[in-house]
Amino acid sequence: MQLSSLLGHSAELVRIIRKSPQPGDTIASEYFRSKKYLGSTDRRFISGLVFHTLRTLSLSEAIATHLGLEDVVHGAHLLMDNPENIDLSFINDLPIHVQVNTQDWLLTSTQKRWPTDAAEVWRSMMQSAPLVLRVNLRRATREAIIKHLTAEGIECTAGPLSPAAIVVHQRVNLQQHPLYLGGMVEVQDEGSQLVAYACAPAETDHILDACAGAGGKSLHLADLQE
Predict the structure, then answer these.
(1) CB within 10 Å: which end of the chain, N or C, has fewer?
(2) φ and ψ of 221, to 5 deg
(3) Which domain holds residue 45?
(4) Is residue 15 part of a domain?
């Protein structure tokens, strides 16, 4: 598919996601199912550009406006490719909160906690998050799951912080994998896993999860309570 068409599809999907209260990954899956003509390479390009756009929205909009580009997706595309013939030096003159894609008040709040590292904290959030699994330790060991995935050619290592975490080092769809379907693993970032361990729930505790989204931490808390 031509680049212009890929950018058009990406821009369309970004607009749909920004207008919807649904999670972006759910909308993207539905979008790709409705576009049967998109091949795996096309879907990979569009998905990468769309979520890069969403992670770098403020900066991408600033680039698109400054260079007179068609829309924010073109700005994000420049950020991804950064061709040498495009002068992006003006980015250094933008407000810091725009450069790191957050709100001014959020950056100020973060600076109170990390006076010298706040900008880098927000800049790190512009990167694609790694795929991290949480092993159901009541049903399997982390070592056994790593061995199983490695035997299938899936590169992975133990997470450095959570005793149940496995970091997968390649793009792979595990939602149809027998380990996932069988409840042996869940997709959950390592920071979220640490929340349940920090709570250290007792079996008789009554816990209200006031920040439950898909319920990953709630399920983990329940697992720890056995």
Answers:
(1) C
(2) -60, -45
(3) 3-94
(4) yes
